[in-house]
Amino acid sequence: xxxxxxxxxxxxxxxxxxxxxxxxxxxxxxxxxxxxxxxxxxxxxxxxxxxxxxxxxxxxxxxxxxxxxxxxxxxxxxxxxxxxxxxxxxxxxxxxxxxxxxxxxxxxxxxxxxxxxxxxxxxxxxxxxxxxxxxxxxxxxxxxxxxxxxxxxxxxxxxxxxxxxxxxxxxxxxxxxxx
Length: 179
What we know:
CATH superfamily: Gcn5-related N-acetyltransferase (GNAT)
Family: Belongs to the acetyltransferase family. RimJ subfamily.
Strand content: 35-45%
Mean pLDDT: 97
Number of helices: 5
CATH architecture: 3-Layer(aba) Sandwich
Strand order of the largest sheet: 1-2-3-4-5-6-8-7
Protein name: N-acetyltransferase
Radius of gyration: 15 Å
Number of domains: 1
Domain N-acetyltransferase: 15-173
GO cellular component, one term: cytoplasm
Shape: globular
Organism: Glutamicibacter mishrai
Structural class: alpha+beta
């Protein structure tokens, strides 16, 4: 399976249904860490069955070139998820990027290096021209990850997504992959 190196012992690769157990455990382990940054989750979200079904759905979209669900693995332990979703082809060739890193691995530059690898993959192998991402207005760490990778802020969307149980403002960013 094709891997995108992030550092000497960390790489991104497309998730497989066999990763559902690892993904469920990673979400369980990071439940409190992610709570502030993600939608409210039903209990079933944290189960292997739910994660397997979700991976299956995203892989169906992947087979059509419309989504790319990556796991971030360090020494075969899943320590994050990076997803290219909402791919629009045709004249747009654009997609959205979402990501998170295990609470024990933040502050190590992993997210920045992983986003860099994703952008190379998107430009050179996925045929994308543009990637967009959004962050909560107070998520300065994620904003720095995007800025480190050449994203520019293109606006602020009031009450953009329902995160942590309430509609929250988000800063919007984009990276143009082909000049």
